[in-house]
Structures are given as structure tokens and as C-alpha cells.
């Protein structure tokens, strides 16, 4: 089993969605990103360059979250996964995108889309 680094609850105001009001007013989105990687080289050397700098990663993910709008949460999740996999140390990633202000016409706390992507 791989080691994991998780950024949980990263939040931003985005304009994603298929409806005009979503694009006009935007809403809150949250992201959980769990990276799978081997942290042993970093641990053995106490060297940040041999792992993923999660502070920098959080900034990159946030920029995507609040950046160019997309229609589908699936598309947003894929862009976030691609960002994580751009880090050489990452073998796989699980992304969950939360849309807590979703309007389903009935009471609901949240809608999520979760994907897992790997280099293989």
C-alpha cells in the first residue's frame, strides 16, 4: 500500500455549472485530494524536494478551483487530478469535488464527484 498525503476541504468560489445562474453568481466548491506516493526517500533524507510540497499543491489546486469555469464536476475533477499527477513523486490520486450549495429542487447537503487516476 502506498503512502498518502491528503489535502482536505480546500475551498473556493467558482463559476462551474451548466446553468446560467451558476455561471453568473458562482458558488462554493470544496476539494479533497489524496495523493499516493512513496514518502520513504523524503523521510530518509528529511528533504522536501523528494516529496510533494502540499502548500504549493494547495495553491495550484485552488487556482484551478476558482479559475476557468467548466460545465461538469467531472471535468473539474480531471483537471485537479492532472495537476496532482504533474508532480513526479505522485503515483496516483483520488479527487473528490464537493458542490455544497447545489440546487436539486429537494433538500440535500452536498453533491460530490470522486475520481481516481494513476500513472499506470
CATH homologous superfamily annotation:
GTP cyclohydrolase I, C-terminal domain/NADPH-dependent 7-cyano-7-deazaguanine reductase, N-terminal domain
Q: Helix/strand-derived class?
A: alpha+beta
Low-confidence stretches: none
Architecture in CATH? 2-Layer Sandwich
Number of domains: 1
For the CA atoms, what is the radius of gyration? 16 Å
Q: Taking strands numbered 1, 2, ... along the chain, how are they ordered across the largest sheet?
A: 1-2-3-4
**Extended strand count:** 4
Overall mean pLDDT: 96
Q: How large a portion of the residues is in β-strands, by DSSP E? A: 25-35%
The ordered H/E elements are EHEHHHEE
The separation of the N and C termini measures 15 Å
Main beta sheet: strand number and arrangement?
4 strands, antiparallel
CATH topology annotation: GTP Cyclohydrolase I, domain 2
Q: So what's the overall shape?
A: elongated
What helical percentage do the residues reach? Answer: 25-40%
Q: What is the CATH C level class, in words? A: Alpha Beta
Question: If helices are DSSP runs of H or I spanning 4 or more residues, what is the number of helices?
Answer: 4
What is shown here, in short?
The protein is an alpha+beta fold and 120 residues long.
Amino acid at each position: 500500500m502506498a503512502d498518502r498525503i491528503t489535502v482536505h476541504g480546500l475551498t473556493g468560489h467558482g463559476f462551474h455549472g451548466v446553468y446560467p445562474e451558476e455561471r453568473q453568481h458562482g458558488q462554493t466548491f470544496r476539494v479533497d485530494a489524496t495523493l499516493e506516493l512513496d514518502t520513504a526517500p523524503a523521510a530518509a533524507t528529511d528533504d522536501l524536494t523528494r516529496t510533494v510540497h502540499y502548500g504549493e499543491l494547495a495553491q495550484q489546486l485552488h487556482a484551478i478551483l476558482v479559475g476557468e469555469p467548466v460545465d461538469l464536476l467531472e471535468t473539474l475533477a480531471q483537471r485537479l487530478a492532472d495537476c496532482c499527477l504533474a508532480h513526479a513523486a505522485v503515483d496516483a490520486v483520488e479527487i473528490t469535488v464537493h458542490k455544497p450549495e447545489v440546487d436539486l429542487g429537494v433538500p440535500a447537503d452536498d453533491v460530490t464527484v470522486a475520481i481516481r487516476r494513476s500513472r499506470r
